[in-house]
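Quick one before lunch.
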Amino acid sequence: MSTTSSDYDYIIVGGGTAGVVIASRLSQYLPTSRILLLEAGPDAVNDPAVTDPFPWMELFMKGYMIDYSTTPQSYLNDRQILNPAGRLLSGSSAVNVGVWMRASSTDYALIAQKAGDKRFEFKNLVKYFKRVETFWDKDADERYHGFDGPIKTTGGRKYPLGDTILRTAENLGHQLNKEANKGDPTGLIQTTQCYNATSESSCERQHSAKVFDLSKVDVRCGSPIARILFDDNKTATGVQLVSGEVLNAKKEVIVSCGAQKTPQVLMLSGIGPSDELSKNNITHVLDSPYVGKNLFDHNGLTQFFKIKHPERGLVYPFTEKTRKPEYGQGISWEWIVFNNIPKLDLAPILASDNELAVNEGLHPHLQEKRCHFMTIPWYFPIALTPMYNPTIGHDDGKHIAFTSLHLLPLSRGTVTLRSADPSDNPVIDPKYLSTATDRFIMHRAVRATLSFISTSPLAEQLDGETPPAPEGYSGPAWPALTAESSDKEVDDRIRAFTATIAHPMGTCALGTVLDDEFRVKGVKGLRVCDASVFPEPVGAMPSLTIYALAEMCADLVAGRA
Ligand SMILES: Cc1cc2nc3c(=O)[nH]c(=O)nc-3n(C[C@H](O)[C@H](O)[C@H](O)COP(=O)(O)OP(=O)(O)OC[C@H]3O[C@@H](n4cnc5c(N)ncnc54)[C@H](O)[C@@H]3O)c2cc1C
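Model of the flavin-adenine dinucleotide complex:
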């Protein structure tokens, strides 16, 4: 067969977090191979709106961030939940908040069990975590941290309320966990973020295409694909772009379009649940019933609390106006609490959801070191819930925010096709909080925040909650929540204001859709590697784990694993 300029050895579809890593590493490991990376969005790698981690609104306005809003969610008052993702080279790594963390080893053990391979256990992932990062603290334990990886990190700030938060957490019984990256994040941890410190008080975002070398990869931005092409033996032979152009892959196609788009690409290519394909008149390549199933996400509720003495400059976002060396580099927060719910409290709720193995204590939620939720204090009113209270701006200097974040959802939703048109977004139905266990965990998470703000010494610095007052809302005023609020008041608030922090995962999972080397079962020459591969949630912000899985995938493709 003669070779043309449209013939490649490997085509990676989706130049996001995972796709960039895989393309970069393959070009390094297989230097004689021709590698193509196709990205739907633009190349904005050095646009200050991307490299500066703070101008989020600009990311939307410039079209770098798109919204995959959900269907009406029945356990959230039928609200459609804003669901952003990056649509540019680097994908969501170019628009995210930059929290850099690993989950509990128990979470990875469950993923390994579902994937059917020990390679996904924490101890076997550590080498990939290390390969990716340059950890900011040179004295950190080298068994767990990398010091020469492409992603530089920052941490170790000192905010005026830092000690107050630390002592409040300790008064509530949370131990300071100085090494949260060795498989047990339980307790109070100091936040690390994936920024590169450019001075004592400034930093730039570390996103995948900024730091991974793509000089030996053919990168085509503005090139959304319509479908993957197969021969009669169900071997992937290349892709067709939305423009109609066909590009050939002699060895493999690797799909990394993120948890919302990867299942859509597979279904449009004829791989998916048979009924879904038939409904959209798509020619079947393979009935793969779990494509687009198993969608889960991290739900969060954010609340704003008034500071008693704003004149002391205790709270501020880290913006141009307020950059101070003692605040270090990064978004204005320094602590996160990883919380466990006691087994005796959780077991009856799990049983009410008919979850298996609860009575024997074998349910994954009842295992040691599993963290069910996070409490996140921010030194400014971060607007994770849109239109929460538009009178409070980021720079108001009078509020602190707390996010109560549910980490281990049992609810499972779907990504299905809106139509056979690749330009249409898929239908996203995460079925948020559709299990009693998830509603219970979310409730406990908010209660934990209310205890935190009512406990000394933080309590003495605060003056209650400023409740939400969304623009255009004309109903009765929302009561300020306190530790004394009724269960109904807490649940009403959860239903009305819970959002997502944009961690969708699970829609082309290892073990069901994929084998243990990321290959799509039932066809040849096709792999998937991105947030969609998780069979079970990681109870942490996921990007570091996604980077690590992409490193592993590149090793497997190149025969180095
Ligand atoms: C606002 C926000 C804040 C977040 N904060 C954090 C955080 O603080 N810490 C953390 O760890 N995680 C965070 N996350 C989550 C994390 O960033 C994502 O889970 C991760 O980046 C997803 O990586 P991915 O490779 O699966 O997909 P992405 O990085 O989203 O990449 C998918 C890419 O595929 C492209 N694409 C889609 N369809 C096509 C097509 N048909 N053809 C070609 N290309 C296509 C997209 O344009 C995109 O570039 C956040 C996410 C968001 C959106």
